[in-house]
Predict the structure.
Amino acid sequence: MLPSLVSIIVTTKNEEKNIANCLLSITEQTHPYLEIIVVDNNSFDNTREIALKFTDKIFIKGPERSAQRNYGMINIAQGKYVMFLDADMILGPKAVETCVSMVESGLWVALHIPEFVLGKSYFSQVRRFERSFYNGTVIDGARFFKKSVFEEVGGFDETMSGPEDWDIDKKLKNIGPIGLLPLITEYPKATTWKLARLIIESGVNPNGKWNSIFHNESEFKLVEYLSKKKYYSASIDRYAKKWGRNDPDIRKQMSIGYRFFGVFLERYKWKRFILNPYLVFGVYFLRFLVGLQFLKRNLL
């Protein structure tokens, strides 16, 4: 009996610097039965030409990432399971195999996958530290799905750009639970993984993270970070109205108390938080700037 086919959708727009590493990481998966689909939003660089070295399933779709993801995951994908990646992400070699194993246990309809932000600068370290507290929380978003369930909920809401990841989690929870993929500590071919050197040179030791996602955001740039946060917060009011501001998940997602304190302190995570004051300072500096931007948007 053949293993289940997994369709991996990569959304792109002018990603010639990142797309090769992303697609290489997919070809390096231990799960043997994969379909690689690239959905490009009219790139004018060499993104598509580079992608052709890895797959002939390249499609043009816009205007936003939600539409790209839906097109690839619903209209094109042939797999029993679907997952999506951004082009600046690198998939640990055991990620797909462990996702399939976990979902086929019958308990989960979708999975959150642990994510590690790459980079050696201070704020890259801060972002990596901050992101590690979000795994499996309401601030996280599922990336691996049973295709039938993804279709049942109608995919991503294409009227949103940013909170669509939270929105689809809300829809999925009406059908079944979302799991968090536990990290795999062993990988026999660790020394020959083609992307290990890149990960290490980007400030992260891949050992014990073989089924995670490495997010190659490049070295942190504050203006770009705030601009991205501003852009992706534009749909937040539509999302809150859709589900109601009294929804327990939305109360956490919109709450200063949870976003500034709760997510870092719950489930005994506070121990790691208070032991890293050097990074905690950076977390709250960025949280403060994002909060100011949010207040400014609502006051203007």
Notes: The domain at 6-220 is CATH 3.90.550.10 (Spore Coat Polysaccharide Biosynthesis Protein SpsA; Chain A). The chain has one domain: 6-220. The radius of gyration is 19 Å.
